[in-house]
C-alpha cells in the first residue's frame, strides 16, 4: 500500500514546502517586475538580478513534475516561462548558429576610467573592432589614447564631459561625416552624441550611451551628490533616456541610415529601459545571436547584462565578451552584416 501524505519522509515534506515557497515568492517578484516600473527601487533591483532568481525555476519544473508535486509545479510555471524566454534562445543559437560573414565589427566598453586601460588595449589587440563605443573615459586619458590608438582609429569623437568627470567616445576606422549632440535628455542624464559614419558609402549613426547610474544603498549625502538622485529617480531618468534614444534611432532609420546604439544601460533584461529600446525597433544583437547569458557587470561571470549593442538596419552575426582588464564591466563585441 502506498504511503499516505502524512507518512512521507520529513525531508520530502520540507523540500516540497521549500519549492512551493520559492515558486510563490518568485511568481510574486515576477509580477512586481513586469507590472511596475523601474521608478520603484524594489522593482529595479529585482529586474537587475532577475536571471539569478528565475534560473532555478527551469530546473524545478521537471523535478516537481516527476515528484507529482502539482501545487509546486504550478507555482514555478510562470518563473520558468520567464527564464526560458531568456535562456532558451542561447541554446537554440548554439544548435543553429548564423553562418554569414561580418561586414562590420562593433564593440562597446565601459572602461571604468583608468582601471580599464588594460582591458581596452586587450580588446583592440584581440578583437580589433571597426567601431568602438566607449564610456567613462576621463579627460586626462584622451591625449594618451590619441597617441596610442590614433593610427588604428583615425576618426574619433569625444562627448562633453559629464558632471561625474568622465565622458563617452566613438572611435572608428571609417570617416566621420557629422557629430550632433543629443538634445531632449532629462536632467541627470550624461551627455551623448549621434556620430554619423561613412561605412563603405553607407551612412551609419552611432550613439555611445551611458545611462544614469543608480545610487543603491547610498547615504542621504551620496544621493544628494548623485546627478540623477535616488535609485527611484535615476530609474525614471534611464527610462526617459531610453525613450529619447529610441526616438533618435527611429528618426535616423526613417532617413535611411543604419543605427547602432551601444553602451552601458545600467539596467538588465527585465528592466524597463531595454524593453523600451527594443519596442521601438532596435534589435539586441546579443539576444539575437548570443550563445550564453553574457553577464557584463562585475567580476566574471558578473551579475547582470547591462552592456549592450542594439542595432537597426543590420543583421547580427555573432557576439562575445572580452576581458575587463580592471574595469567593472566586460566589453561586448558584435559582428554585424548588411541585410540581404
TrEMBL record:
<keyword id="KW-0255">Endonuclease</keyword>
<dbReference type="InterPro" id="IPR051547">
    <property type="entry name" value="TDP2-like"/>
</dbReference>
<dbReference type="Pfam" id="PF03372">
    <property type="entry name" value="Exo_endo_phos"/>
</dbReference>
<keyword id="KW-0378">Hydrolase</keyword>
<dbReference type="GO" id="GO:0004519">
    <property type="term" value="F:endonuclease activity"/>
</dbReference>
<feature type="domain" description="Endonuclease/exonuclease/phosphatase">
    <location>
        <begin position="107"/>
        <end position="313"/>
    </location>
</feature>
<keyword id="KW-0234">DNA repair</keyword>
<keyword id="KW-0472">Membrane</keyword>
<protein>
    <submittedName>
        <fullName>Endonuclease/exonuclease/phosphatase family protein</fullName>
    </submittedName>
</protein>
<feature type="transmembrane region" description="Helical">
    <location>
        <begin position="41"/>
        <end position="63"/>
    </location>
</feature>
<keyword id="KW-0227">DNA damage</keyword>
<dbReference type="InterPro" id="IPR005135">
    <property type="entry name" value="Endo/exonuclease/phosphatase"/>
</dbReference>
<keyword id="KW-1133">Transmembrane helix</keyword>
<dbReference type="InterPro" id="IPR036691">
    <property type="entry name" value="Endo/exonu/phosph_ase_sf"/>
</dbReference>
<keyword id="KW-0460">Magnesium</keyword>
<keyword id="KW-0812">Transmembrane</keyword>
<keyword id="KW-0479">Metal-binding</keyword>
<keyword id="KW-0540">Nuclease</keyword>
<feature type="transmembrane region" description="Helical">
    <location>
        <begin position="14"/>
        <end position="34"/>
    </location>
</feature>
<feature type="transmembrane region" description="Helical">
    <location>
        <begin position="69"/>
        <end position="92"/>
    </location>
</feature>
Amino acid at each position: 500500500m502506498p504511503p499516505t501524505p502524512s507518512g512521507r519522509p520529513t525531508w520530502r515534506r520540507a523540500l516540497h514546502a521549500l519549492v512551493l515557497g520559492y515558486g510563490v515568492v518568485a511568481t510574486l517578484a515576477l509580477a512586481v517586475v513586469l507590472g511596475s516600473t523601474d521608478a520603484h527601487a524594489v522593482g529595479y533591483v529585482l529586474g537587475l538580478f532577475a536571471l539569478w532568481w528565475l534560473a532555478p525555476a527551469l530546473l524545478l519544473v521537471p523535478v516537481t513534475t516527476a515528484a507529482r508535486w502539482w501545487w509546486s509545479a504550478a507555482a514555478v510555471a510562470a518563473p520558468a516561462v520567464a527564464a526560458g524566454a531568456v535562456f532558451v534562445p542561447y541554446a537554440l543559437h548554439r544548435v543553429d548558429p548564423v553562418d554569414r560573414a561580418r561586414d562590420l565589427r562593433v564593440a562597446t566598453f565601459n572602461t571604468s576610467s583608468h582601471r580599464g586601460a588594460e582591458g581596452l588595449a586587450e580588446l583592440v589587440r584581440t578583437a580589433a573592432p571597426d567601431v568602438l563605443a566607449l564610456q567613462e573615459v576621463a579627460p586626462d586619458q584622451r591625449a594618451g589614447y590619441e597617441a596610442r590608438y590614433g593610427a588604428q582609429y583615425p576618426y574619433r569623437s569625444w562627448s562633453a564631459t559629464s558632471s561625474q568627470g568622465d565622458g563617452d567616445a566613438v572611435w572608428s576606422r571609417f570617416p566621420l561625416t557629422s557629430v550632433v549632440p543629443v538634445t531632449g535628455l532629462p536632467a541627470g542624464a550624461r551627455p551623448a552624441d549621434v556620430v554619423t559614419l561613412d561605412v563603405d558609402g553607407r551612412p551609419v549613426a552611432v550613439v555611445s550611451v551611458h545611462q544614469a547610474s543608480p545610487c543603491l544603498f547610498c547615504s542621504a549625502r551620496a544621493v544628494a551628490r548623485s546627478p540623477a538622485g535616488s535609485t527611484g529617480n535615476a530609474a525614471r531618468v534611464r527610462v526617459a533616456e531610453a525613450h529619447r534614444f529610441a526616438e533618435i534611432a527611429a528618426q535616423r532609420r526613417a532617413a535611411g541610415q543604419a543605427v547602432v546604439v551601444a553602451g552601458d544601460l545600467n539596467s538588465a533584461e527585465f528592466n524597463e529601459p531595454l524593453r523600451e529600446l527594443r519596442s521601438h525597433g532596435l534589435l539586441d544583437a546579443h539576444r539575437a545571436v548570443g550563445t550564453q547569458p553574457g553577464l557584463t557587470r562585475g567580476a566574471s561571470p558578473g551579475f547582470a547584462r547591462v552592456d549592450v549593442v542594439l542595432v537597426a538596419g543590420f543583421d547580427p552575426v555573432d557576439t562575445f565578451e572580452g576581458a575587463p582588464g580592471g574595469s567593472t564591466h566586460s566589453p561586448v563585441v558584435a559582428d554585424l552584416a548588411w541585410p540581404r
